[in-house]
Design brief:
Strand content of chain A: 15-25%
CATH architecture of the largest domain in chain A: 2-Layer Sandwich
Protein name (chains A, B): FAD-binding oxidoreductase
Radius of gyration of chain A: 23 Å
Largest interface: A-B, 85 and 85 residues
Number of strands of chain A: 18
GO molecular function, one term (chains A, B): FAD binding
Oligomer: homodimer
Largest sheet of chain A: 7 strands, antiparallel
Helix content of chain A: 25-40%
Pfam family, one (chains A, B): FAD_binding_4
Number of domains of chain A: 4
Organism (chains A, B): Streptomyces malaysiense
Number of helices of chain A: 19
Strand order of the largest sheet of chain A: 15-12-14-13-17-18-16
CATH class of the largest domain in chain A: Alpha Beta
Cofactor (chains A, B): FAD
Chain lengths: 530, 530
């Protein structure tokens, strides 16, 4: 099944907004219904491909036949950009300027190498495409004609070593299928980002994804033990041991490279036994500050829950954690902040952690709310992107952004980003609702994930851009990183360069030039073009 | 205090071998006393420095005066090579061919930058020097005149953030002093490699050190949250958050770069509260295989001890873990394999882990030996290098090497390296004693650390080289990494290049060329010169 071309996920799961939400949007944010009717896929006016027939023939030869090179309008539209709110708004408005020339579907590592050779010969850029879920402009290269290198045919579990607890996965494997294949042998990755239903293994690695159970299972980049990279200059293979002192860790150079250095064609990951027990529960804290302090104690001194998250006052009040109950808490001004803790593992070990963590949370001002809020969160954990579609449909604007920093900087970072978003959108005449949660904790710091909802304004993309840029500036100024788990893409690139520094960026560009001398891989994604 | 110039550590801690060991060496290995008398430092015939007076003047200007540029014989000898057995044998034989032109002692990051500029202007290579404990030829560049860039004046604790639990340490800070400064504020790094008494923070980072408590505190590269690097092209600063999705992890590109990309001038590390309780105990397993299986269960399913190690049958029999008792176990052919487990933390949490781990170890065939073997190990944990000096003094050869792999490859790797060492040295007429332990465990694999003792042969360095190369070949063939925690240096470089692959090495050389266009930093260390 393909994802909705102009929205998120499975069309069958789309749900209209409850009346309570529509009322809230109108009364609180001044959201007005959109007057422009929705475009159908057939209405889009696609530019004809400019790639020469010889180029298409070379691509077909690389992938074993014309059946694996698609130039039909639907395929091209489905590989246009990713799933950020500006991406959806642009395609809904009929803007298909970032459409690929063709969609190429290699089946093997060697076919990927052959596709890259064909691209080099015919001056085509190549954009690796997994689940297509980028929210940072990672699928729209900066210049020139390009092909989407769709990895969906490379969707196998190549090896599972139950002694070492490692698995070799192909990049086009989507997360649910990866979990299903591993579950057959009693294992799990434990990687459940909000994009879970659609995102791919290769994309997780390329963009340093982090899942909702990262407190227990770690980030995706922490799960990766080995990578195979197909580049225009040949193959890089990494990972002979879990850890090594043999030079820089090349895995960590490929992770986060977002297709700019090569195409990830295999990922060796650590796997863990399927948990026998899963339990999620809710806690209430008087304030975001008090809740954050409690999360910090668990992150630093343990015991560490598998899932650990905390919504701020606004997100708690709105009830974003459970879309079917949005607005239900609005009459409770003493709502405080909702935290969700989850425990997965063996019954005994889970019980120990849960009991000890409960003591810590209670000692730090938490009130237990039982399992109901936790189960509600778990039930709705992948539904926020569907909610966004419904919000866009009724004329609201909704987008998210995220960052991370060391613990001592979190209060200032939180305040600075909220202010930047609120001030910019208020000045533009569309005061927003800004919500935030902590969903990834470390011994030394945490992430902050913001959700913004407002009216769309006349030109919703142009309306959002200054607010997004103000948030980026606030993140840099307050000592945060420009992305904790969405990545850089083209949207964050200029701030990424400032965060990283010119000299380090030069070093990364030297790597790119060595592996991709013609600059055909994802031009302008992650690193500036020349 | 300076380290012994021709051996290890504090001369006052040197101890002669017990008679039992001398007898063992003679009877078992045919070790004969050395006939050549030991050279004194004054006996060494140092080549006069060839660096022009203008070069020395430029260096002096870079570091604020001639007092911080040393050209005396003793300073130069003390910065000649590191502390591998071949290094010691060479200097004991009067071979000072790798002596630096001068020792330069910068006090600040900016002075390091100035030293690099002076080196570039005067065509001098620069070798960063911390504790001088490299055992892989990391301090002897491959070509040309060089200065030792000794970082001992940069030995401060620059910042401690008790909320984020981070500390900023200067690179020349030695581990005991770092621990003392952190302990004043209630914190510890928890990094205790065998080189602890002498090694420096910068060296730990540059060479990806791993300490004896890595099961609990992690490897040094896992403790590092930020790095400042002084390069000939300027400064690289990394680490705004514990984790980020903003591109490749540049910390992991600098960690393990062994001075080839730049000089590490500051390291931000995670710190932990000083443990209230420390307890170490011994366990016996019937075989190395059975013990390794038990360690694997703890590493994968927990609970994780803070220290977790296992000696093979030979190492257990010889009793290397406690040098004062070497040979005492030789009459017990049922000795099996000794494991040491250690627990550090709060009393309650330590007790929980200890009790649960004991149940796991017992279930997997372990016999508890109480705390005495654990305390003995802890008491002697930094003494092996002193023992090596004593062995070299009496005409024995002693050296160590190490590797790591995924769990399922450990048995083959163990057998392959043992055979390579035993076969090569036996064929050369000096059958060795080969001992091994696992001292670092991960969910997905472990390290293997080998100790080799034999007679020296006529030319002991030439005698060892084929055995070392055979071990390197065995490691590559059996799927291990060329080093788990000693690093690459010049000794492992050619195998490192094969392990890493030409294309990845090209990418790293592109980074080096960008940061160090004149190739003045550690030429030939880690990466081949042009």
């Amino acid at each position: 099944m393909d994802m909705l071309w102009n929205g998120w996920g499975d069309p069958a799961k789309a749900a209209p907004l409850p009346d309570s939400v529509t009322g809230l949007l109108r009364d609180l944010l001044g959201v007005k219904p959109r007057s422009t009717p929705a475009l159908a896929l057939d209405d889009l006016d696609l530019p004809a491909p400019t790639a020469a027939p010889a180029a298409l023939a070379a691509l077909a030869e690389a992938v074993g036949g014309t059946g694996h090179v698609r130039t039909d309008a639907e395929s091209r539209v489905r590989h246009t950009r990713g799933k950020s709110t500006p991406d959806l708004l642009r395609i809904r408005a009929g803007d298909v300027s970032d459409v690929p020339q063709a969609v190429v579907l290699p089946a093997t590592h060697d076919e990927v190498l052959a596709v890259l050779r064909a691209c080099a010969e015919h001056a085509l850029a190549a954009v690796p495409f997994g689940g297509g879920t980028s929210v940072v402009g990672g699928l729209a290269p900066e210049r020139g004609a390009f092909v989407a290198l769709d990895l969906r045919r490379m969707d196998g579990l190549l090896d599972l070593d139950p002694v070492s607890r490692t698995a070799v996965l192909q990049p086009g494997l989507r997360a649910p299928e990866a979990e299903a294949l591993l579950a057959e042998q009693g294992f799990t990755l434990g990687h459940f980002p909000q994009s879970f239903e659609w995102a791919s293994i290769g994309g997780f690695a390329a963009a340093r994804s982090s899942g909702q159970a990262s407190a227990g299972y770690g980030r995706f980049d922490e799960m990766v033990l080995g990578l195979t990279l197909a580049t225009p200059r040949g193959t890089v293979e990494t990972g002979r041991a879990p850890r090594s002192a043999a030079g820089p860790d090349l895995r960590q150079l490929i992770l986060g490279s977002e297709g700019a250095f090569g195409v990830i064609t295999a990922v060796t990951v650590r796997v863990r036994p399927l948990p026998e027990t899963k339990v999620y529960e809710g806690w209430r804290f008087a304030s975001f500050e008090a809740g954050a302090a409690a999360l910090r104690v668990l992150a630093q001194d343990g015991p560490r829950p598998t899932v650990l998250r905390l919504s701020d006052e606004t997100e708690t009040l709105i009830g974003l954690a459970s879309p079917d109950k949005i607005g239900a808490g609005l009459d409770r001004s003493d709502a405080g902040c909702l935290a969700v803790t989850g425990y997965e593992g063996t019954p005994e070990e889970t019980a120990y952690r849960r009991e000890r963590a409960a003591a810590v949370l209670t000692a730090h001002g938490g009130t237990p709310l039982g399992t109901e809020p936790g189960e509600r969160w778990a039930h709705g954990r992948f539904s926020a992107p569907y909610l966004r579609d419904a919000l866009l449909d009724v004329g609201a604007f909704a987008e998210t952004l995220e960052t991370a920093a060391f613990w001592s900087r979190i209060p200032e970072l939180y305040a600075a980003v909220r202010s930047a978003l609120t001030d910019t959108l208020t000045a533009a005449g569309t005061p927003p609702l800004v919500m935030c949660h902590i969903s990834h904790v470390y011994e030394n710091g945490a992430s902050l994930y913001f959700t913004v909802v407002s009216a769309q304004g006349e030109d919703p993309v142009a309306h959002w851009t200054p607010a997004k840029h103000a948030a980026n500036e606030a993140i840099l100024a307050a000592g945060g990183t420009i992305s904790h788990h969405h990545g850089v893409g083209t949207d964050h690139r200029d701030w990424y360069v400032r965060e990283t520094g010119e000299l380090a960026v030069e070093a990364l560009r030297a790597v790119k030039r060595r592996l991709d001398p013609d600059g055909l891989l994802n031009p302008g994604v992650l690193l500036p073009t020349d």
